[in-house]
Amino acid sequence: HQLTAGRFDLEQPDISNPLPGGYIGGPAEYVRLNSASMLDADAALQSASWGIGQLMGYNFEHVGYQDVQQMVTAMVDDEDDQIIATARFIEDCMLNEALQDRDWTLFASVYNGSDFGRDGYDVKLAAAFEHYQHALPNLDVRTAQAALLYLGYKPGPIDGMLGPRTRKAVIDFQRNRRMTVTGSLDRRMTEALCVAAFAA
User: Fold this and answer.
1) Three-state secondary structure call for residue 49
2) Distance between CA atoms of residues 14 and 139, nearest Å
3) What is the pLDDT, as a whole number, of residue 119?
């Protein structure tokens, strides 16, 4: 709505609307993004969030890209670029100190916008920081979770932590593939998941 001066509001109010909302979540958002792209590709890409840091496309200049298409291509191609873009955004918004001082309210108010409190982003950041003080994410587990999600299972958050939902997803995968059901996630199981995901 904002990037197109509302010219699609009457034609497709589920895509362009002066009132926020309409977010469905999951794969359905790709359908909505495709519909929006058919109306105005540049505005659509700027209106979506991208990468692990969920950066809005309209921030492309803040994170070092010439245009939104270049940013989206980088986000799709490589997770390292997603992390680098997130770090650049934090630097560009001068949030380094807030992060170092663990001032989650200040950080969330800039990173997530003025409505950060509605979704409790500051509280979630504080909780995540405390959680990861005790155990860092395991990247092999995170890879397995991403493969499970891609294959249609429900491993829970892609957080590198082997919790009950991830174990259940592994068990479901093992059952469906007629493997020995263990629920464990070792290197061989992670490789099997990756092979299955690439083949899908």
Assistant:
1) strand
2) 38
3) 87
CA 131, CA 116: separation in Å to the nearest integer?
A: 20
| Residue 52 · residue 79 · CB < 8 Å | yes
Taking the C-alpha atoms of residue 197 and residue 200, their distance in angstroms, rounded to an integer, is: 5
Give 50's strand partners.
55
Could you tell me the sign of the dihedral formed by the alpha carbons of 19, 82, 154, 34, in that order?
positive
Per-residue pLDDT of 157-170, as tens digits, reads: 998 989 999 999 99
**Dihedral of the alpha carbons of 127, 28, 48, 98, in degrees to the nearest 10:** 0
- pLDDT at residue 28 above 90? no
DSSP string, 105-144: HHHHHHHT-TTGGGGTHHHHHHHHHHHHHH-PPPHHHHHH
Q: What is the dihedral of CA 151, 37, 119, 102, to 10 degrees?
A: 90
